[in-house]
Design goal:
heterodimer, A: mainly alpha, three-stranded parallel sheet, 7 helices, 3 strands, globular, B: mainly alpha, two-stranded antiparallel ribbon, 5 strands, 60% helix, elongated
Chain lengths: 138, 195
């Protein structure tokens, strides 16, 4: 798998869709090979981990535990909601998703906001923080 | 009330024809296959389908009679095209849309474990609802968490079916716009937040 498939960023934080996509095609081993060849570690927010490993589920669940054990996926600690910067950022993100999808704010899952917060706090430069970082600075 | 887009049919005929295909896996598979390979002959159709040629002939004849397939050549071997079903059903305040995508998804219920399981758990109506979410997902306007919350299903189940249906939509609805204009979205959000 060519290196350019991975964006050039400081951290690789993943959402639930990545593992599900590779799992559906029985190709998680290809993802593992690509990630380990590049010496990356994929960072998985706790809330996303919980979504990928529900207690009872009729579908085959993605092999997250194996990936964590093998070291190419690492669990990100829950963000600290008591930190005012964190809660303000998450509020902004939920507000944005709410407006963009035309749905009430309280129906927006925390995981979406947590994912983007993890993204903005784990990336360093303004370029890689992207639009969320820029909006937060306003 | 149902609106029909199958050519020259009464909406009721269309409804009956579509119900026929929804209930009969063999007809659904045949319709999906004609849609997939674009104007096949019976012989070309039989290559990917387990039924005997006689059964395929009979099924094609039936699908032509109910206007879901159309013969597009005058000379043998005849070629067939799938009609673009687009039917909106309104009942008890609910609106429900039947498109070729639904028929293709139903045709895959036996070969695709995820789709089969989703129908077992949520019914054909659940699948039709999921297609609407998947269409928005394909257009980058929806995600699995919103669907999971609104449909009261696990995020893993929502994301799985969205991805399965996205692949079908990309084939069955090639004109769908998949790129999201972030600048436009930003402007729309800002406008809404300023209200």
């Amino acid at each position: 798998m060519p290196a350019q498939l991975f964006p050039s960023v400081d951290s690789h934080i993943i959402d639930a869709n990545l593992f599900i996509r590779f799992e559906r095609h029985n190709t998680v081993n290809l993802l593992e090979r690509a990630v380990t060849e590049q010496n990356f570690v994929l960072l998985l927010p706790t809330r996303v981990y919980e979504e990928l490993t529900p207690e009872s589920h009729p579908y085959e669940t993605p092999p997250i535990e194996d990936a964590i054990e093998a070291g190419w996926v690492q669990l990100l600690e829950e963000v600290d909601y008591s930190n005012p910067v964190v809660s303000a950022t998450m509020d902004l993100i939920r507000q944005y998703i709410s407006a963009a999808t035309d749905r009430p704010e309280q129906t927006i899952e925390q995981a979406d906001a947590a994912l983007l917060k993890s993204y903005s706090s784990n990336t360093l430069s303004p370029e890689t923080t992207g639009r969320w970082g820029l909006r937060i600075q306003h | 009330m149902a609106e029909s887009a199958v050519s020259h049919s009464h909406p009721l005929d269309t409804m009956l024809a579509v119900s026929d295909v929804i209930r009969n896996d063999r007809l659904a598979k045949l319709y999906a296959r004609v849609l997939e390979i674009d104007s096949p002959t019976i012989e070309e159709l039989s290559e990917g389908i387990e039924s005997s040629t006689t059964t395929i002939y009979e099924d094609v004849k039936h699908l032509v009679e109910i206007d879901l397939l159309e013969r597009v050549t005058e000379t043998q071997p005849y070629r067939y095209q799938a009609s673009r079903v687009d039917m909106t059903i309104q009942a008890s305040g609910e609106t429900f849309q039947i498109t070729p995508t639904l028929l293709v998804a139903l045709a895959e219920r036996q070969s695709n474990e995820n789709i089969g399981l989703y129908i077992d758990r949520n019914g054909v109506s659940g699948l039709a609802t999921a297609i609407e979410y998947a269409r928005a997902y394909t257009q980058s306007k929806m995600n699995a968490r919103i669907m999971a919350r609104e449909q009261d299903i696990p995020v893993l189940e929502a994301e799985t079916i969205l991805q399965e249906l996205q692949e079908i939509i990309m084939e069955a609805e090639p004109d769908i716009s998949t790129s999201l204009n972030i600048e436009e979205l930003d402007a729309a959000v800002d406008e809404q937040l300023d209200k």
